[in-house]
Each structure stands twice: as C-alpha cells, then as structure tokens.
What we know:
Elements: H1 6-20, E1 27-30, E2 43-49, E3 67-73, E4 76-82, H2 93-96, H3 98-105, E5 110-119, E6 129-137, H4 165-177, E7 183-189, H5 198-207, E8 211-213, H6 217-225, E9 229-239, H7 250-259, H8 261-274
Parallel strand pairs: 1-4, 1-5, 5-9, 6-7, 7-8
Antiparallel strand pairs: 2-3, 3-4, 5-8, 6-9
Amino acid sequence: MQFYKFEQYNESALALKGRLKGFRPEILLILGSGLGFLGDEVEDPIVVPYSEVPHMKYSTAPGHKGQFVFGKLGGRNVAVMQGRLHTYEGWDFDDVSYPVRVLRLLGAQTLLVTNAAGAVNMDFSAGDIMMITDHIKLFGVSPLCGPNVEEFGPRFPDVSHVYTPRLQAVARKAAQALDMTLREGVYMYFPGPQFETPAEVRMARILGADACGMSTVPEAVVAAHCSMQVLGLTLCTNMCAGILDQPLSGEEVMEIAALSSKKFSALVRKCLESME
Length: 276
C-alpha cells in the first residue's frame, strides 16, 4: 500500500488550479452510481478528467464518467466528481479519498457526498432519499492509516459528528420546502463489489444500519479529518437482499436512480442554495 505525501496532494491541487482560471470551489459534490446527471446540470462547466490530474486514479465503475466538473450549481461554486473511486476497483482507501484532500487545498470547505444504496430498514422503500446521520464501518483499514499528514489534521481525529448537524438541519428544511419525505438513518459500509448477503443484511439491521453500500465512508472520514463540513445523502435504489424475494442487479440501481433523478436533483440544489 502506498501512502501519499502532502507534496503530492499539493501538486494535484496546483495542476487543477492552473485549469480553473481563478475559479475557487466552495463545495465538493461527489456523485454516486446513477447520479452523474447532476454533473451535467453545472453552469459554465470546466471539465477535467481524472486522468489529467497528477497522482489521481481513474474510475472504472459502470456509469461513472471519471471527471471533475467545476462551475455553478444551486448558485454555489462547486467541484463535482462525476463518478467516484471504490476500493472494489482495486484502489486503496487513500486512493479513494485522495480527491477530497486535493479539493480541500483548492478551498472547498464542505463535502456533499451522495450514493445509491440498498435499504436495510424495512420501513423504507426503493426510491426513498435518506440523509446520513452516522455510519458504521467494520471492513478494511481506515483511509487515515499510514503516516499522518499533519497539514490536514491530527493523528487521532474526533468523529463524533462526521456528518455536520447544521447541514442536517439545512437538508430537513430543504425537504420540507419541497414537500418531500426525507428519511434519516445510519449508512453501513460494505466493500463490494458483490451485493450483501441476506445474513449480512440481518447483521446490519441488528447493528443499527438503515442502508448499506460500497462507498461514501472513506471520503467522509477524510473530509472530517480535513475539518470539512459533511452532508451525506443516500438514494435507496433497492431493498437489500433477503427483504424481497427477488435477485439484485446493477441495472435495477440505475433504473431507480433515473426514475428518482428529478426529486434528487431538486433536493441537492435546494440544499446548496441554503448552505451558508
């Protein structure tokens, strides 16, 4: 496993800065599976493929374009990751979370992280949007393993509030203004790429999870280490294994994401507009 040094993060940030012509992102928006359409809604876009950023890895997951889109969304200066990185693609945790630190160096103070995930809570339905209030991570090493990069944060960071309470209040008000039901709950990280087994889903429910997926937690942990504020939104694209008597598929995830695109976009935009 390689561990990145501050100089490498800084080199990536300087390379992006040279492409942005004075544009300074306030918010990093990471788009999950089937949610890349939000990147196409950015105004005055500046597109930079991950392959053109020094030290960054590329995205191989279906539906993930693997590029940054810089511009305006919801009236805010955003850096949109149109496709993310996952450990199931073969990348290390510090590869997956690498862009968070790079964007922090470019000035981003907030992470709005999204994902498509399976619903563990049996009161939820496919198509529901859940605001993440906390997470559970039992698998794999921490993205903070290895030498601590002191320029970003302390060796032993507090994670009592990875997901910023003030931003949770913003999301609640945004959903209310849109007359939209917003679920709230705990997201559990699984490494994938296989979907979780029925027994693993039962375990997740016993532990207190409401949804489970294969992303988000590494980026959120690193953002908290960087003193960024974090808002997490999950689109429940399916009920997890064992809840319904039917097989799971990636196609179902994409189908539900497409059907839910308008309401998800409206909520993200409203949240962005309401952030201070």
